[in-house]
Amino acid sequence: MTAGRLPEVATVGNLVEKASDIAVMLDQAGEIQGITVNPDSASLGCLDHWVGRRFDSFLTNESAEKFSNRFYAMTADPDLEPRSMELNHKDNATWEFPVRYTMHRVADGGILLFGRDMQPLAEVQQRLLREQLARESDHQKLRAGQTLFRIVFEESETPLVVVDPEKARINEINSAAASLLGSTAETLRGNILPQAFDGRRRGEFMDALRTAATADVDCGIEAVSRRNGRILNLRPRFFRVAGDLVLLCRLDVVDDGASAGPEFSNLLLSLYGATSDAVVLTDARGSIREANDAFLTMADAMQIRDVQDQSMADFLLRGSVDLKLMLDSAAQKGRMSHYGAQVKSAIGTRTPVDISVTRLRQQGGDTGFGLIIRDVSASQVPEAERSNVMVSDEAMQNVMDLVGTRSLKELVSATSEVVEKLCIETAVQLTDNNRVAAAEMLGLSRQSLYVKLRKYGLLKSADGD
Question: Taking Cα atoms as reference points, which of 163, 188, 177, 185 lies closest to residue 233?
Fold first, then answer.
């Protein structure tokens, strides 16, 4: 025990030393009568000079107020349950250390404080705080580096593509490279690189890139952009990023593919993306290969992947009937304009449209089609007005004049024949006198259509057209 030992026997003093890091005996006025420091708590040092002085004189201001409130509550209420409290000591004006105390009353009316040194825990907390600040600083530096990379990468005039060599997926692509491929960086990012080129299979294409990247001489591989037919030379190089290999490909133009130059191609690309009319490119069978944002909006599709490789017939109300009519006419004449139809979206909404179709010749002799689809719902005649136009006032008057001269059954039969004749004339006109398509549109067999054409005297006029 140190000077001013606690008034207990030696065995009790040893027990107090082992049970706590520091034990302080106070009288009823808060003056220190004795103090004991555990020999294992060397960081507390020698505190013999505290004896005979007020305990709160060695506390910081906030801790002194906390101690006073608890001390006077304990002396006023002997039955008050002891609770722990953390106090910050100060000594020699520069040395501060935290101690967690529990306060206990003793037989002579004094107060005994048992304390645990909190300096090790405080040091650990400070170390964790410093490490957290260091990590946040490193994270900010990393984000700044990533931002700088993206700015420099995007602003570079050199067309660049960063590719995962295992999955063949485009990790990053700048606007210069996306423009050469006939699309935008947002559309291409995350897609499979070989799919951007005509006639290239993934395995063969990636093997060729790896071979070119590891060759002793600077060489590349040639490929034809699927979207605009431009011939490009890809020059790959391997890099290691965070332990993973990536391919950085530079794109060089071999053949511009457009006599008007790249400026004209960029303008066409801008028009394709910004026009309010839907633009769809299909293969010879009508399967969608590309579509702009206007069509995705009309079809209620989130992204190009939702409609790609689907038949255009899936988005037309009359399905394969409409598609066959348009593609056959465009294949024979080179183009077809002003075909009325309805586009149905993924959620079932219908939009009346006017469609123009053009046959497209691609490199290698393949045939495709380009469709320009214009929403005409705003200019369409309302249903009530359209019904009045289909059945003229004169026709309605003729029917009304028959009332009283014939039975209702005969009147309904006569009226239905007028409507049937009108529907057949409309179908023949819409299909440009293609009777097979007209029969399919009306849900009739070809033979039944011929019978009805003869019945209403439409066969000769149809043949004359």
Answer: 177
Cβ proximity of 217 and 196 under 8 Å: no
Could you tell me the two tokens for 135?
């990590």
Would you tell me the crossing angle of helices 446-455 and 408-430 to the nearest 10 degrees? 120
Give me the half-sphere count of Cα atoms (radius 13 Å) on the Cβ side of residue 92: 8
Query: Are residues 346 and 430 both part of a single domain?
Result: no
Q: Based on the number of CB atoms within 10 Å of its own CB, is 11 exposed (0-12), middle (13-18) or buried (19 or more)?
A: exposed
Counted domains in the chain: 4
Residues 176 and 290: their CA atoms lie apart, in Å, by: 20
pLDDT in tens, 359-404: 887 655 567 899 999 999 877 655 444 444 445 555 556 666 666 6
- pLDDT for the residue numbered 128: 87
Residue ending a domain, among 236, 262, 288, is: 262
Q: What residues make up the domain containing 204?
A: 156-262
Residues 243 and 283 in one domain: no
Using one digit for the tens of pLDDT, what is the confidence trace for 74-120? 888 877 777 888 888 887 655 677 888 988 888 777 888 888 888 77
What the block records as the tokens of 438 is 């007209």
- Rounded Cα distance between 178 and 184, Å, is 5
What stretch of H or E contains 177? Answer: helix 175-180
pLDDT in tens, 133-169: 888 888 888 888 878 878 888 888 889 999 998 889 9
Contact (Cβ atoms closer than 8 angstroms) between residue 182 and residue 227: yes
- Residue 278's DSSP bridge partners are 373
Instruction: Tell me the C-alpha to C-alpha distance, in Å, between residue 1 and each of 9, 15, 113, 117.
Output: 10, 11, 16, 18
